[in-house]
Amino acid sequence: MSSFRFFDPHAHMTSRTTDDYERMAKAGVRALIEPAFWLGQPRTNVGSFVDYFSSLVGWERFRASQFGIQHFCAIGLNSKEANNEGLAKDVLEILPRFALKEGVVAIGEIGYDEITPAEERAYQWQLEFAREHDMVVMVHSPHRDKKRGIIRSIDVAKEVGIDMEKLVIDHNNEETVKSVLDAGAWAAFTIYPNTKMGSQRMVDLTKQYGADRFIVDSSCDWGVSDPLSVPKTAKMMLEQGVPADAVEKTTWKNAVTAYGHSGQIDFELLDAKPVIDQRQLFMENSVLRGQEAQVDEGVPN
Amino acid sequence: MSSTDMPPLTAPDLQKLSAWLDAAVAACPGSGHAAKYAAWSEGVLAGLAAGASDGQFCQALSAASRYAPKGALAPSPQLVADAEDLLAGWNPSRWTALEAARVRLIVERAKADPESLLSALEEAFRYADEGELCALYRSLQFLPGPERFAVRSAEGCRTNMKTVFEANGMDTPFPEAHFDDVAWHQLCMKSLFVEAPLWRVVGFDRRVDEELARMALDLADERRSAGRRVFPELWMCMGSAESGLEATKRKLAAIEKELSGDDELSRKGAILALGRLGQTERLEEIQADGGTYFGPIAGWALMGRHDQTAFASISPPEGAEPQTREHEEGRAQGALLFPGDTDSDPATDTPGNPS
């Protein structure tokens, strides 16, 4: 594990504490993407969105940097709140002011929740915006009726003309993975107890399908979730014989490639400093005081 | 920067400033894609000159990150000298190229319609990301009707983003010229708290006063009660020997307490403060007994080298020079916002006493 570094391409850090940042940094997480989503309850006015988007490109970016973690984000109107159509209209009006800012690597997370016409309109509008500005799209797949939601989200993205190389479908599982791979999009998996994937299932899927189009993330948020999902799953993969280069693909390289299409990731910076730092930390044990990186058992299902 | 002989502040010539910014961006180390940037900025500047909406102005500030050169502006010594001629107190040495490109846009907006500038800038502040905030705050020193922006700049002192705090408060003549006493004292005190370089607050020596000295001494007492080190630059706030007898007694007692402590940088700061208070005899004593470490500092102080720039040597080390998008990129754990955090051992879980 000692030479590994991780890119967690889905982490809602505004909901997390500095303890989490510390543990992530210690476990080798060097960069992450924080996609815009809902707050666990619906917002009532557009000003709340302005302040939220603003915190993603401001305070949270700075907060992450204090722990040596590069913070990128995705800006979008989530599917749940798309159902408040008056509010959705206001949000889409101010969205372009944030979507084209520095360090915004995608439009996201967008897609379906209940697969309503209102959700579809907001999804389509944002896909068109992404296409016009040549942006990457991060799609949230629904909890209920997931398989149909994913197929539909891919179909609509295709209709709008989104390049499959710039489409990441998130929160996949055993039942949905094939549709995503067949479409040529990136298949992301969220390692999140109870509702999404567990580490062991992720290991099995990687063995079955290979790592070429897989992306592992934590989606850690305000629910019972784990900001160390990615390193923990990588550890389990290695222990169970998944080749190191495949582990690197799922927990670093593929996310960097997919979201790198935004032009907002400085590859040199991402490669240079953090890697050197991390190796120094581990080899000299100067900061960790002889302690192995803090990576425990895999995330339970 | 000389501490006492600066000419009075005058508003800079915006035409000359525009030319300076264009020249500096064109000459910066990262200007490899200069043609792409030049083409883009030409169009945007023309749009701003013709009267852009607030929304277009905000989007131009954002989009600059996609076209401007990356990394430090690194102006030549000649450009730095020219900057000082344009606006006394302005020091662009630590600017990024992107900040210069953004300030260029703001200046163009200022030229186009100075009347509506305040509302346009407030809109830009509302939607700004971290890097845009830095550029916006850096621009305030150049704008016509600067007193209109004093409230905004005072707000900038309330930020918890150290990058933004420094862009607002350091290397610019704005605070000295336009802050009221409350804002001025808060800028200076917060610089100590977040370990921003107080010596780079332009005009500090001209505006240091007894109220600031009192606040600083109270802070020193509070730090000692908590078992924490006193910030070395705190001793800058001792001001001059012209305070009343009681105040001077308190200052000297606090300085002596520091000199008997074991924090080397803070002791150096206390020695410089003796110079500020004209304590020649005590300094001669230290020079004689202070060995190779403290002796030379006392010697400097005796020669009058105790102005704010003399405190640069005991100021917190600067973070890595900006390498990419924003200042903060070069910062790892060595530049935590809250001082003292770096002293704690990240590998232990025992309850500590982080400052």
From TrEMBL, chain A:
In Gene Ontology terms, what is one molecular function of this protein? hydrolase activity, acting on ester bonds
- Heme in keyword set: no
Q: Which SUPFAM superfamilies match?
A: Metallo-dependent hydrolases (SSF51556)
Pfam families reported in the protein's UniProt record: TatD_DNase
Q: Which InterPro entries match?
A: Metal_Hydrolase (IPR032466), TatD-like (IPR001130), UCP005295 (IPR012022)
Entry keywords, A to Z? Hydrolase, Metal-binding
What domain of life does the UniProt record list for this protein's source? Bacteria
Similarity section:
Belongs to the metallo-dependent hydrolases superfamily.
Please identify the protein, giving its name as recorded.
TatD related DNase
Source organism? Saltatorellus ferox
Automatic annotation (TrEMBL), chain B:
Annotated region Disordered: the residues are: 312-355
Q: What is this protein called?
A: Uncharacterized protein
Polar residues composition bias: residue spans: 345-355
